[in-house]
């Protein structure tokens, strides 16, 4: 996925990250500004960063393919499933004639991604690749909650992924409150209260969102939401709470731009830098 083009607009200082998921940073004159990326639909092009992306950037390995994706499979119940950390989503439709349509989207490091869709029959899906090459066979293994997705082990399924992305993960039922549209509604509600300077009403909205859904948000979104909450706590005079809110944000562990750049692939660094800048800025405010 390419770096998104952005329009920079000067905003008040300090300004929260946009509840719509738009990060902020500083312009060349040092003014605190709001960045508006032009993005496709939220799930069609996630932001290029998340918890697994960080692990991949540091050299962690993706799970190995199952030797036999049909060993113990079952067709998933209709619904929306997601990986912990918010980097992958599986959607399964209601069966028709004994077959269920499915779609998987995942985001890997440096803007790489996977996108698969097809029909599940008997817990398996067969996806055609390059003409003349073997098909990719996907298996859905039932877990205590959710499904483990695996692909045939000959490398055929790499056809659907970028070099630094994968799809073979555990997908767990996504709570309705944590689906994309519901999360967006809560962030929009927060922004209305924040703009109206109703900080006492705005903060609990994001506190509830994090309590319910942080497990399912990618780390890019977590950084945005936690910065929004932190700057709201700053306005409420809750500087200790502000610092505690920012403590889990990945950028908090990095000292500066150069440290961050050394730890991430190029596209991930450019995408995450505005959130890192917001984190460093807000930490300074809440340490005064």
Question: How does this model look, in words?
Answer:
This protein has seven helices and eleven strands. It is α+β, with helices and mostly antiparallel strands and 288 residues long. The protein has two domains: 6-39 and 177-287, Serine Threonine Protein Phosphatase 5, Tetratricopeptide repeat (Alpha Horseshoe), CATH 1.25.40; 61-174, no CATH class. Strands 4-5-6-7-8-9-10-11 form an eight-stranded antiparallel beta barrel. The protein has a three-stranded antiparallel β-sheet with strand order 1-3-2. It is elongated, with a radius of gyration of 20 Å. The protein starts with 5 loop residues before the first strand and ends with a helix. Mean pLDDT is 79; it is low at 1-15 and 18-67.
Keywords for this entry:
elongated; disordered N terminus; single chain; 2 domains; 288 residues; 8-stranded antiparallel beta barrel; 32% helix; alpha+beta; Serine Threonine Protein Phosphatase 5, Tetratricopeptide repeat; 3-stranded antiparallel β-sheet
CATH topology of the largest domain: Serine Threonine Protein Phosphatase 5, Tetratricopeptide repeat
For the largest sheet, list the strands in their spatial order: 4-5-6-7-8-9-10-11
- Secondary structure tally, helices: 7
Radius of gyration: 20 Å
Order of helices and strands: EEEHEEEEEEEEHHHHHH
CATH class of the largest domain: Mainly Alpha
Largest sheet: 8 strands, antiparallel, barrel
Structural class: alpha+beta
Form type: elongated
The total tally of domains equals: 2
Strand tally:
11
Weakly predicted, low-confidence segments: 1-15, 18-67
Helix content: 25-40%
CATH hierarchy: architecture of the largest domain: Alpha Horseshoe
Mean pLDDT: 79
């Amino acid at each position: 996925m390419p770096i998104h083009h952005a329009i920079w607009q000067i905003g008040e200082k300090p300004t929260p990250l946009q509840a719509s998921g738009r990060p902020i940073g500083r312009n060349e004159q040092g003014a605190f500004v709001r960045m508006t990326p032009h993005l496709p639909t939220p799930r069609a092009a996630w932001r290029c960063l998340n918890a697994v992306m960080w692990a991949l950037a540091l050299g962690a390995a993706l799970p190995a393919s199952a030797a036999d994706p049909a060993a113990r499979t079952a067709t998933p119940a209709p619904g929306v499933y997601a990986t912990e950390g918010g980097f992958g989503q599986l959607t399964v439709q209601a069966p028709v004639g004994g077959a269920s349509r499915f779609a998987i989207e995942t985001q890997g490091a440096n803007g790489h991604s996977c996108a698969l869709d097809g029909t599940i029959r008997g817990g398996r899906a067969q996806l055609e690749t390059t003409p003349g090459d073997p098909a990719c066979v996907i298996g859905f293994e039932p877990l205590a909650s959710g499904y483990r997705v695996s692909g045939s082990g000959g490398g055929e399924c790499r056809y659907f992924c970028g070099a630094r992305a994968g799809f073979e993960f555990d997908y767990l039922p996504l709570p309705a409150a944590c689906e994309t549209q519901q999360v967006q509604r809560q962030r929009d509600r927060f922004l209305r209260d924040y703009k109206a300077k109703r900080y006492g009403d705005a903060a609990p909205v994001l506190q509830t969102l994090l309590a319910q859904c942080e497990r399912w948000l990618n780390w890019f979104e977590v950084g945005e939401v936690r910065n929004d909450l932190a700057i709201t706590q700053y306005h409420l005079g809750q500087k200790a709470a502000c610092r505690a809110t920012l403590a889990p944000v990945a950028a908090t562990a990095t000292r500066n731009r150069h440290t961050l750049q050394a730890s991430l692939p190029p596209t991930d660094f450019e995408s995450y830098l505005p959130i890192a800048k917001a984190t460093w800025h807000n930490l300074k405010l809440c340490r005064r």
